């Protein structure tokens, strides 16, 4: 998305409202705008524009919201935006992981020491691409749970905010997240075991 | 689970939440009753309950890791006066690039470590520069030279080091089945380098096999001298195994004072050298799991099998064990102790290949 691209806050807000009225084309139009904004924000963060060097997916989603959406948007539309942005954030990370894996394969392996053994040990061995695929499967039979996971992990919304965005109770959000996490973890653990 | 079974998924969901609210002992009864003659349903719910118990922060970590890898992937055609050739490694601390002088003043290739999320404020950058200068003055054939350092345009600290190709010392020894005498000889050369650094008031702080490469010519080279201190936000006063430094230190080789967070001294390196010697001679890191388990407890007592029992031979054990004593304050007073102990014991005949193959028969005690 370049500067001449029609992605002003007004237009994004209008697309959100149209989507809220059930216009699916509006959603399709929003995805590339949000994707591009998130990537740009991530790159800006890399260049140190934000003064820190830790990529916080949730912070990026919120920054995208502030840049793309006008104030005074009804909560339902706001929820729509976050759901879409969180999902898009996940895609940004997955695309990045895939690209860097391709690059790494080409680079050849040279031994260096930079605590790499800990980098491996610290994570539970779950790949973001595998998590992404599992979430897509979950979405296939329980869309709301996948959305709760996205909103919680990639948009950093509180239970109350998620509840408002999805028009359910906070208790439901809590239960959804609990089961969704267990389901995802089981899927991913199975996968790791092969 | 597929979309064609929404009813079943709802049933699983209900049972999951009902069972989850029960104590572990009552769950089995409940599920037996609720699932009746549908063992598949029961397995499904049980596996989800088990996953619920195990998930912890696994998903958070996976996402954080993906985000961390995304942020650690800046496109850096140049870093200071250096032209980046390619990325050669990545770890918890940042990314390592192979580079050369942009002005081609000389052709030497270097390794540049760009540290992610490192130094932030002015004072820390100043301290970083001062420390870097001290390290750059270390000039020893067995110490990889620190050539340059600074901050990238983005403010990320970086260090330029001599680029070395080699193998970690433990693997180098094992792959060649080096006899004990050769292992000791290599170890003594490492000791020399550490002693030289200590005389220059520099403590390595993170001695471990992967930080000691042996080049194709068989020369050991210590990497990352003093780097742990450079990267310590607390100014290097202590290196407790907490918070952000957790990823920096190697638990297997961290000394008691590092684990406790008390000031690091030259004895920190002596301790790690002792563990290294243990590893080289026995092929075992057997303190690792015990150390990890004990990491946050205060029970620092001798926890490792004496090398004599791990691989029964020789009278060298005294020197080695002195290095490894875990009781507070009992670490060997200087690296010289360990060197002296080795020098004495290396006169023992020990030219057999090591580790021994099973066919080599029972090792003979020479004590």
Overall pLDDT confidence of chain A: 76
How far apart, in Å, are the first and last alpha carbons of chain B?
66 Å
Q: Which spans of chain A of ≥5 residues are poorly predicted at pLDDT below 50?
A: 1-6, 49-53, 106-124
Beta-strand percentage of chain B?
5-15%
Helix count, DSSP H or I runs of 4 or more residues of chain A = 9
Instruction: Determine the fraction of residues in helical runs of chain A and give it as a percent range.
Output: over 70%
Report the top-level CATH class of the largest domain in chain B: Mainly Alpha
Overall domain count of chain A: 1
Which class best fits the helix and strand makeup of chain B?
Answer: alpha+beta
Quaternary status: heterodimer
Using DSSP, what is the number of strands of chain B?
9
Using only CA atoms, what is the Rg of chain B? 26 Å
How would you sum up the major sheet of chain A?
Answer: none
Estimate percent helicity of chain B.
40-55%
What profile does the largest beta sheet of chain B have? 6 strands, antiparallel
Looking at the overall shape, the CATH architecture of the largest domain in chain B is Orthogonal Bundle
If you compute it from the alpha carbons, what radius of gyration of chain A comes out, rounded to the nearest whole angstrom? 18 Å
């Amino acid at each position: 998305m370049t500067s001449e691209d029609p992605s002003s806050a007004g237009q994004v807000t209008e697309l959100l409202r149209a989507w809220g009225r059930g216009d699916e084309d509006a959603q399709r139009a929003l995805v590339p705008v949000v994707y591009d904004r998130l990537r740009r924000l991530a790159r800006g963060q890399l260049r140190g524009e934000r003064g820190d060097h830790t990529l916080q997916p949730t912070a990026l989603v919120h920054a995208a919201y502030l840049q793309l959406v006008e104030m005074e948007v009804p909560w339902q539309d706001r929820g729509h935006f976050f759901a879409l942005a969180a999902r898009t954030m996940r895609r940004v990370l997955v695309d990045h992981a895939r690209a860097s894996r391709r690059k790494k394969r080409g680079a050849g392996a040279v031994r260096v020491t930079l605590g790499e053994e800990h980098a491996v040990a610290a994570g539970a061995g779950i790949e973001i691409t595998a998590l992404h695929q599992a979430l897509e499967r979950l979405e296939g039979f329980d869309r709301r749970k996948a959305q709760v996971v996205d909103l919680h992990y990639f948009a950093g919304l509180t239970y109350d905010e998620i509840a408002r965005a999805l028009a359910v109770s906070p208790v439901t959000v809590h239960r959804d997240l609990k089961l969704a996490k267990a389901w995802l973890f089981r899927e991913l653990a199975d996968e790791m075991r092969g | 689970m597929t979309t064609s079974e929404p009813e079943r998924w709802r049933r699983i969901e209900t049972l999951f939440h009902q069972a989850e609210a029960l104590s572990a002992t009552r769950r089995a009864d409940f599920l037996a009753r609720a699932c009746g003659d549908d063992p598949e349903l029961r397995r499904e719910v049980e596996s989800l309950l088990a996953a619920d118990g195990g998930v912890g922060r696994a998903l958070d970590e996976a996402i954080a890791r993906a985000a961390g890898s995304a942020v650690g992937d800046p496109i850096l055609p140049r870093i200071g006066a250096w032209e980046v050739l390619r990325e050669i490694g990545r770890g918890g601390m940042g990314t390592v690039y192979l580079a050369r002088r942009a002005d081609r003043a000389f052709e030497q290739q270097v390794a540049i470590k760009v540290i992610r999320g490192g130094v932030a404020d002015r004072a820390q950058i100043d301290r970083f520069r001062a420390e870097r200068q001290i390290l750059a003055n270390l000039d020893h054939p067995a110490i990889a030279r620190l050539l340059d350092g600074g901050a990238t345009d983005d403010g990320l600290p970086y260090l330029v080091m001599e680029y070395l190709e080699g193998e970690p010392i433990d693997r180098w020894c094992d792959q060649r089945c080096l006899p004990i005498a050769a292992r000791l000889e290599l170890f003594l050369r490492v000791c020399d380098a550490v002693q030289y650094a200590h005389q220059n008031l520099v403590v390595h702080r993170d001695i471990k096999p992967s930080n000691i490469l042996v080049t194709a010519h068989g020369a050991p080279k210590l990497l990352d001298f003093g780097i742990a201190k450079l990267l310590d936000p607390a100014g290097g006063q202590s290196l407790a195994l907490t918070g952000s430094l957790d990823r920096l230190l190697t638990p297997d080789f961290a000394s008691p004072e590092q684990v406790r967070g008390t000031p690091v001294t030259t004895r920190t390196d002596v301790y790690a050298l002792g563990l290294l010697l243990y590893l080289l001679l026995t092929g075992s890191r057997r303190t690792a799991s015990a150390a990890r388990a004990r990491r946050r407890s205060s029970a620092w007592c001798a926890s490792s099998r004496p090398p004599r029992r791990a691989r029964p031979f020789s009278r060298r054990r005294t020197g080695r064990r002195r290095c490894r004593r875990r009781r507070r304050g009992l670490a060997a007073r200087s690296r010289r102790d360990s060197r002296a102990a080795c020098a004495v014991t290396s006169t023992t005949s020990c030219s057999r290949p090591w580790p021994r193959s099973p066919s080599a028969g029972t090792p003979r005690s020479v004590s």
